[in-house]
From TrEMBL:
Keywords: Eye lens protein, Repeat. The lineage of its organism: Eukaryota, Metazoa, Chordata, Craniata, Vertebrata. GO terms for biological process: lens development in camera-type eye; visual perception. This is Beta/gamma crystallin 'Greek key' domain-containing protein. Belongs to the beta/gamma-crystallin family. InterPro entries: Beta/Gamma-Crystallin, Beta/gamma_crystallin, G_crystallin-like. It holds the Pfam family Crystall. SUPFAM superfamilies: gamma-Crystallin-like. One of its GO terms (molecular function) is structural constituent of eye lens.
Length: 155
């Protein structure tokens, strides 16, 4: 199975899953929207209580394996404005590392990343692949505080 923008036609409820290979993002709304949850190879007998999820996965996206460098620019404000920092490794707290109170846009140049709304990789997360992200307002106004690379060792 690959990416699926709307899983409702396949199943109405799901209480467990097994990831046989790769890394995946699962979402509780169609079209890769809503809360996102990261899964890597393994069995998830009761992922609902583990992640606090609802009883449905509405869409899923496979995360391609990346072997190479990781590079992302984060910006303090929308449209690549304000302070900019270039990252090549994980950051558990942008306030501690860069004295940034939040990040509102980014440009992912290399690799695949998870960004979290709270420091230390906590709270809601969002998956970012290479591309320009001018504004996070369409993501529920999230302000990201920590970032982590999706490494090939996770596969």
């Amino acid at each position: 199975m690959g990416d699926c923008a709307d899983m409702h036609s396949y199943m109405s409820r799901c209480h467990s899953c097994r990831v046989e290979s790769g890394c995946w993002m699962m979402y509780d709304h169609p079209n890769y929207m809503g809360n996102g949850y990261f899964f890597r190879r393994g069995e998830y007998a009761d992922y609902m209580s583990m992640f606090g999820m609802s009883n449905c996965i509405r869409s899923c996206r496979m995360i391609p394996m990346h072997r190479g460098s990781y590079r992302m620019r984060i910006y303090e404000r929308e449209n690549f404005m304000g302070q900019m920092y270039e990252m090549m490794d994980d950051c558990d707290n942008i306030m501690d590392r860069y004295r940034m109170s939040h990040c509102q846009s980014c440009h992912v140049m290399d690799g695949h990343w998870l960004m979290y709304e709270q420091p230390h990789y906590r709270g809601r997360m969002w998956y970012f692949r290479p591309g320009e992200y001018r504004s996070f307002s369409n993501m529920g106004g999230m302000r990201f505080m920590s970032m982590r690379r999706i490494m090939d060792s996770w596969y």
